[in-house]
Write a structure and sequence with these properties.
Layout (H helix, E strand, L loop, with lengths): L3 H18 L13 E3 L7 H17 L6 H8 L7 E2 H20 L1
Antiparallel strand pairs: 1-2
Helix pairs in contact: 1-2, 1-4
Length: 105
């Protein structure tokens, strides 16, 4: 099982990659409270797509292949419309645990 700290590191790496191409006013803070989706999100739709791609690449480099959009879609209403870094870490932890359990059977 991948530890939560691995998810935080992957998310922060993705934030770094998005910040490299963002304007100064759109920079994301590397903080658990940073809102990634929803009304208070700092990313526009294209910025979020870039973030997801960067995050999926960061996770893959750590040995975990997850399609974040597919996982969110599959869970529908169970995924909050507003998600911060802390909630994303928890979401990824649940997905990874389910993948681990499925692989063990």
């Amino acid at each position: 099982m991948t530890q939560k700290i691995d998810f935080q590191a992957a998310i922060f790496q993705a934030i770094d990659r998005v910040n490299e191409v963002s304007l100064d006013q759109n920079m994301l803070a590397k903080d658990a409270a940073t809102v990634l989706t929803g009304e208070a999100a700092q990313l526009d739709s294209m910025g979020f797509v870039n973030f997801v791609v960067a995050l999926e690449e960061s996770l893959a480099a750590r040995g975990l292949t997850i399609s974040i959009v597919e996982e969110m879609s599959a869970r529908g209403d169970a995924v909050p419309s507003t998600m911060n870094v802390a909630a994303l870490i928890e979401f990824l932890s649940v997905v990874a645990k389910q993948k681990d359990e499925a692989a063990a059977t």
